[in-house]
Amino acid sequence: MILNRRASYKSFLAIPTRWMDNDVYGHVNNVTYYSYFDTAVNEHLVRAAGLDIQAAPTIGLVVETSCRFHKALSFPDVVDAGLRVVKLGNTSVRYEVGLFRRGDEDPAATGHFVHVWVDRATRRPTLVPEGVRSALAALVVSG
What we know:
2 helices; 143 residues; alpha+beta; single chain; five-stranded antiparallel sheet
């Protein structure tokens, strides 16, 4: 079993919350957590794998997400989005993301995010691009 403590994630991205992220209850709205997940995954693909999101012939489509809330985040918190890969398949990748308030060891939220890699034009599944596979290999954890 993979633990959800900060140390169990392989890469982190600092995401400052914004005033507009808060809802009328004074905490980050639930839909915004999914935006943080998307940002953590795609920032890593662009930075570490050199993915050209505008022109790459192969793209990752999100086919599944989940989020479990553990405690509230609110503006002006800084969120450390922890990222790891639990399955690096031929045509798909399952990422796990932990959202940590800066300085906390336990996550405010945990979830997963699945990409299926497809040909941009045909939308048919294709192999995970080699550059992406290489960049994600360092994030793989076994459970």
